Amino acid sequence: MALVGPGGVLFVCTYNRVRSPMAAGLMRKLYGQDALVDSCGLEPGSEVDAFAAAVMAEVGVDLLDHTPQRLEDLIADGRFTRIVTLSEEAEADLRGRDLSPAPMHWTIADPAHCEDAREARLEAYRLTRSQIHACILDQFGAPPAGAVVRL
Question: Model-level pTM greater than 0.85?
Answer without folding.
Answer: yes
